Amino acid sequence: xxxxxxxxxxxxxxxxxxxxxxxxxxxxxxxxxxxxxxxxxxxxxxxxxxxxxxxxxxxxxxxxxxxx
Length: 68
What we know:
Elements: H1 2-21, H2 28-40, H3 51-67
Helix pairs in contact: 1-2, 1-3, 2-3
């Protein structure tokens, strides 16, 4: 449970970070959607330690793709 809470906190931090980084080009809801999509793609993976970093990278790719 503590690991899940830590991951949830880290994912919220990713949303905050990317909302700030993409505020000029994306609505916060779009950022949340990209992060949720990226996070869902790692569901069921047994090793969770790097999920927040991987989610951030994948969400950035989603947001960058939708910008151009």
